[in-house]
């Protein structure tokens, strides 16, 4: 008996049948004597439908007058958050019709307070003084994920995948014993099984590895949810909501490194196509120039990822290459053009057709030779590397998008990820 | 220059094209120097879509266990209110893209406070301390209609058509000069033009008449919106949102009787198929018996309409016949069965296939002979009258539903409603 948070993504609540199936999974935990808070996403496809409505109107500017009436992220949030509002109410009804007391909670009702960065807000605080007693009183709390309330009393949203972060933050605020993330896959894999059919489900993975994988494009968990869980040492279990009754569904436990137990150098290969490469040509060679670029990007709310400074062979001037999320490219380019004088560069080049491929593993800390294996595997297939970035536990390369599948397969093979290196460990 | 409230129903915001058209109508008023609050309904079809999701889950009770987990109106409200949330955000974006400052306001953000009768809540108070200054500051307020917040901090809704009431109440709270209700018809007609093609648009109609027509099934305005407007003497203009550019769109002005100016005895013929007839057989003949029936209905939140007490020819016992809204019939029957001993009756009969047909007119106050004309017209067509109810300005009869069109045409003709009795009056 304890307090648990369960989170169900869009495909898990895609229609009434799925919502009923979710209510059965929740009922099982309630019957086991747990206090349960459930975090739900919008029904699959609903967020896209709403976003497409917003985008169509957003584009209604007279020619040449970009964003004529200003930012619309506040209204985007109010519109898109309605998707989770619907699902939370529906699941609350489904729970009641099983005879289980339940009520929905919207972000502003909890309240889950965020900063003012509409459409990519960050959680500032979750009030537990209303929802906590309601749980203790035997009510299932069905929480609309992805949403909160900003200081001006408007609805805010946490960005795509934000429901994971809602769930983890709620679990921390409610001092829950664990957070189970139900999704449409049965755990975290060594790589995308659509590209490498031999990819293997991991029984456990360290927070740090999951963080890198999530940052690198493995879309199972939102990056910030993993950061949060790591900071508070909250174990997350990733498992499928589609398990057949009676069938084992251990999922993957994302937990502290000491608990992972499996010995391996590389845990997984990730890739992200949502990348764009920007190169600033012939930069003025003054101190603080990179800081100015980063400030311009940060002011525009654009996250800069891989950064490389180099010397152009043709004119011996300094160039700066970095990557941003592909959907931020236009904003980034506009911000850089506006700051061209301030930063001091001659021209901008950009490329949307790039993919970041990465190998990740806690074991890289104490093993050498990973980079060499990686670069050799890519070179053997004639794949050219544009940019390299490394951290303690990962190596990322930026390559031409058309080599994506080839690169992922080559690396999965080079690090023998299809083979189990340790006996499977059962999740608790 | 003044302050106006404009309200757009579901068909007026049915898709992005219509929302853009609405933004043009709003822009016109802004350009004329007005402060404008716009109240919007959900996109046409959206409320039905959401209600059907709710209904499907609501029906998930084990056989024999009706409403096993209790009332779900609170969750219904939270789910269905999302429709207006989306439209308000979309129209705010459309306004901004015309270069006009605008923001959406949800019921809880204003706040528009209601009682706790979820799914048919009544407005208790509209706070104008936030929205008023925002308007005065030059922002268009795009208000999600139909919704408010109840004392427990949950979303409440005002019942079908509630956006009209939102608009009128907001106009009163904001001390607006007028309230324009844009809809898919170009005004109030003498009767339903689908049944009587010769039906005529009225230039003006008295609050009292509109109130009867609205109560009687003319679906252009919600009853409570008319009551409110009458109590505060706020003129409502009903006009179409589909007018062709440059074409006259006077609509119908709903206003104080003295301002109607058109002389006529009967203004319109209304009908409502959303009726069900209940008869309690062999009632115990004790004082307060009807009061007990009314209390049972009121406790179940069911509105009782026409009431007739009679003596059964067969056994000389007292019977009580009354009508309720068809969608309340099951609730009403359940409540009556539960109170059978308390009220004291032998059996219940009910009939769903009944229609209420009514003639309405301020002039009936000072003219006799209306009832005679009405009953003769129906008798000539062999239409049997089940129940009769009258007020100062209307006569209603309950008939078998299959005679609905025949009865409406007969009455429209009997009162010469296709002829203009006074020269048309132009709305201000």
TrEMBL record, chains A, B:
PANTHER family: ASPARTATE KINASE, ASPARTOKINASE
Name recorded for this polypeptide: Aspartokinase
InterPro entries in the cross-refs: AceGlu_kinase-like_sf, ACT-like_dom_sf, ACT_Aspartokinase, ACT_dom, AKii-LysC-BS, Asp/Glu/Uridylate_kinase, Asp_kin_monofn, Asp_kinase
SUPFAM superfamilies recorded: ACT-like, Carbamate kinase-like
Domain of life, per lineage: Bacteria
EC number: 2.7.2.4
Family label: Belongs to the aspartokinase family.
CDD domains (alphabetical): AAK_AKii-LysC-BS (cd04261), ACT_AK-LysC-DapG-like_2 (cd04923), ACT_AKii-LysC-BS-like_1 (cd04913)
Organism encoding this protein: Algimonas ampicilliniresistens
Pathway this chain belongs to: Amino-acid biosynthesis; L-methionine biosynthesis via de novo pathway; L-homoserine from L-aspartate: step 1/3; Amino-acid biosynthesis; L-lysine biosynthesis via DAP pathway; (S)-tetrahydrodipicolinate from L-aspartate: step 1/4; Amino-acid biosynthesis; L-threonine biosynthesis; L-threonine from L-aspartate: step 1/5
Top enzyme class: transferase
One Pfam family this sequence matches: AA_kinase
Catalytic activity: L-aspartate + ATP = 4-phospho-L-aspartate + ADP
